[in-house]
Amino acid sequence: MTNAQFNTEAVTWRRMIHAQPELTFDTKFVGNFVAEKLQEFGLDEVHKGFARNGVIGVLRGRGPGKTIGLRADMDALPLAETTGRPWVSKIPGKMHACGHDGHTAMLLAAARYLANEKNFNGTVVFIFQPAEERGAGAKVMIEEGVLDRFKIENVFGMHNLPGLPVGRFAIRSGAIMAATDDFTIHLRGMSGHAALPHAAIDPIVAASQIVINLQTLVSRNVDPLDSAVVSVCKLHSGTAMNIIPDTAEIAGTIRTLNPATRQMLRERFHEVVESICAAHRINFTIDFEKNAPAVLNADIQTEVAIRAATDVVGESNVEGDTRPIMGGEDFAYMLEARPGAFMFIGNGDSAPLHNSNYDFDDEALQFGVGYWLCLVNVALNTSA
Ligand SMILES: [Zn+2]
Ligand SMILES: [Zn+2]
Fold first, then answer.
1. What is the pLDDT of residues 294-337, one digit of tens each?
2. Which domains does the chain have, with CATH numbers?
3. 233 among the known binding-site residues?
4. Which domain of life is it from (predicted)?
5. What is the side-by-side strand order in the sheet with 340-346?
């Protein structure tokens, strides 16, 4: 198979997956397609059913060595596509707006090449994961024993990045994406007439104080050289202009790069809400949802990733100390369990991720496939 044929095939797969988006754990169509292909390529083992529709492929090389896991996510988003491309989503209200179609196609193409060539020592485990966007599919796969059962020593992941030119890679050692914690605060006061505030307990004034005071969590508690975000994104209360309402609800998210900062902000968040509610005689409950930790790249594997990307596109096209992004990613759970590295691959001047006009750039496929192949070479054939 020539290089051109190889790339054409990856493009065909990508567009086919793009047209059939599936949400969270329901990645049955793409999961079956991936499993069939891996079997056809002659992998040593193919397993279905991890995290419901996840797929694992095991490929042993020509001799003994380490075992590494390469991960691609497969799920799409609940969004109506507006690209109008020939391969536009055939499923109303669902689309691949985060490029996981491209991630799946790239890892599949790499599996085909490696199964043909067997030009490495050790073992490559291909991890095709559902539910990256919601449901923490990576966490579920770990809980189901994927890393232990297949003896995976290091893990590698990749995500496309709009704004980074096609043919460029970006990574950094340490935190590259943020821990994401979400909160909802339910306030309960006592309703009454707007003209008789002394006979009511006003949750709106307390809610307003809370929103303003949450702004000081970062500005007055976090080291200015560290990074964190607290955003209040929902504030609901009231029904009429002459009624002090019974309840108010506040919801938002906390993003941090540093585990100690994450813990500190969580504590300070509770202190601020509790003390303001006490001051206003408001009853409250807090739903605090602790999601994925920060995506923490290990030093050695980041070096391996940089060497691999450099082999594909040359030193001048690899940013080895890129700025972190305050978005979250459930690959963080895998990096919490095993040392590894998460790489950004350029998607050029496309629409942003999670935008209805976004599309994975097929020109990027060849670079992503090349990265996986070089990564296997550097990680398994050198003393890295
Ligand atoms: Zn996404
Ligand atoms: Zn994504």
1. 999 999 999 999 999 999 999 999 999 999 999 999 999 999 99
2. 3-176+295-381 (3.40.630.10), 179-290 (3.30.70.360)
3. no
4. Bacteria
5. 45-50, 54-60, 121-129, 63-73, 154-161, 340-346, 169-170, 318-319
